[in-house]
Amino acid sequence: GPGEAGIGYVVENEGGHILLECGSGVTAKYLERYNLADLQGVIISHLHPDHSADLFPLGFAIQHSLMQGVRKEPVPLYLPPGGVDAFNTALDCFGGLQKHYAQAFTYQEYQAGVQISIGAWKVDFNRVHHGVNCHGVVMEGDKGQRLGYTADTKMGPELERFFQGVDLLLCEATVDSEEQAQSTNHLTAEEAGKLGEAAGVGHLVLTHFLPGTDGEMKGRLAARHFSGKISVAEADAVYPVGNK
């Protein structure tokens, strides 16, 4: 809504932090609270602009931090398969900026079923159902704490398996009806509750709302199907992952 940023989450640990998604307005909000010297990587689930548009200002900020000595090396940027070429094509459209951004980022395309390590986290990916090359994420910390993130998706049979037993699930709950869910490839709040219950997650955090959404109503709808703790995501809120 007005004055708020798009999609972006900071996953913190003792040694630094990871930026999960970088939608419109995220970079300015991020720089208000975090130091680029501590940024261990950026993960993008898919290249829709509400999840990736602020990679452009973030790249400039990183480049300046390197010039000023705040950072000593580029930031790893993890993109879905085909994402590097797509991002470079966009950079070309903005005036041939590929060389500049190659100084700010090191690019890596992740693969479903192939675990990678970023800082203290082990990260797994699974393709979800959004009509584009979009991946959900499960991150496991050094104390065994597990964070799941659906990215944008409609319901699918493998989601329950992929997110099974995570301590916290960031789960999209964008639309209000099953008809809308099927036509837009998103979840309703009730579907989010069903997924959380079936996967046995510890804490369900509903997210990815349209402007004007009644968050309290989303929470009540999810609670019809989920028996655990439910939160409705808010800007600048902090949610612990597990208690380990």
Looking at this protein, list some descriptive labels.
30% helix; Metallo-beta-lactamase, Chain A; 5-stranded mixed sheet; alpha/beta; 2 domains; 244 residues; 12 strands; 7-stranded mixed sheet; 9 helices
Q: Note the gap between the termini.
A: 35 Å
What CATH first level of the largest domain would be assigned? Answer: Alpha Beta
Shape assignment: globular
- Helix count equals 9
Helix share bin: 25-40%
SS content category: alpha/beta
Task: Calculate the mean pLDDT score and round it.
Answer: 95
Radius of gyration: 17 Å
- What share of the residues does DSSP label as strand, in percent? 15-25%
Architecture of the largest domain, according to CATH? 4-Layer Sandwich
Strand arrangement, largest sheet?
6-7-8-9-10-11-12
CATH fold label of the largest domain: Metallo-beta-lactamase, Chain A
